[in-house]
Amino acid sequence: xxxxxxxxxxxxxxxxLYIGALPALAAGNVAPAAPVPSKPLQPKHIxxxxxxxxxxxxxxxxxxxxxxxxxxxxxxxxxxxxAFRDLGGPGGPGFSAAExxxxxxxxxxxxxxxxxxxxxxAGGAALMRQATPADNFPPPFANEQxxxxxxxxxxxxxxxxxGNTRAGQSDYIYSIITGxxxxxxxxxxxxxxxxxxxxxxxxxxxMPPPLTDGAVIYGDGTMSTVDQEARDxxxxxxxxxxxxxxxxxxxxxxxxxxxxxxxxxxxxxxxHIWRPWH
Length: 278
Description:
There is one protein chain. The protein has about 280 residues and is mainly alpha-helical. The protein has a domain at about 60-115 and about 135-240: Cytochrome c-like domain (Cytochrome Bc1 Complex, Chain D, domain 2, Orthogonal Bundle). It starts with a helix and ends with a helix. It contains 7 helices and 4 strands. Strand 3 (about 195) and strand 4 (about 205) form a beta hairpin. The protein has helices at about 5-30, 60-75, 95-105, 145-150, 170-180, 225-240, 245-275; strands at about 110, 130, 195, 205. The strands form 2 sheets. The protein has a two-stranded antiparallel sheet. The protein has a two-stranded antiparallel ribbon with strand order 3-4.
């Protein structure tokens, strides 16, 4: 009987070693976990003049913002839901009729078919004409395929809709266009052709830094820093996304004042009529 104890002990030890090695063997056969996508930083909060019920757009900022869009953004991003005449409309940048006409004259739009019903010339190129204030801003590319080809597969969004997609979008846009130039963390690898931006989902964005100090020259003498350019173009895009903001706010304030007045009159007549019975 005693002769069996060493053998049993050896078998017991082998079993313990085998059981202990199972987790390590299993771990070696499991694929490594996929990296967790980097969460974007919370956007910087800016006190925009147009926010809130009593907010209003700053006209000089709108005019400067249009200049930033035209000179720094329009080569990639469309503004197709805005007409040139909106630039001189109520609540907008306030350009004069002559200024609006001059801005429109700097663009070419698709022409209507000629007398023979042709939409292109002998070479197949589309017929173009000078834009008028009644036209909308033309896109920078003929179609999506041409845009993707020029942008290495990327599809720049239409900026006439980007300012009103969700609450706080103005802070988000401002943070994106001012969030370049930072160094990624050691564990973050930036793909070729991409740019690090901690405010963008995944921290990588195809758009290069759109603004630089002095990117535009303001006619009113304002210093064109990246921060100022970003504030102005975001203000302009917020207006472009909702052209009737100021009119709607004015109407809302008028309705509220009427309701307050009506409530006061009702209270007065109630007290006057029911006073003898109290």
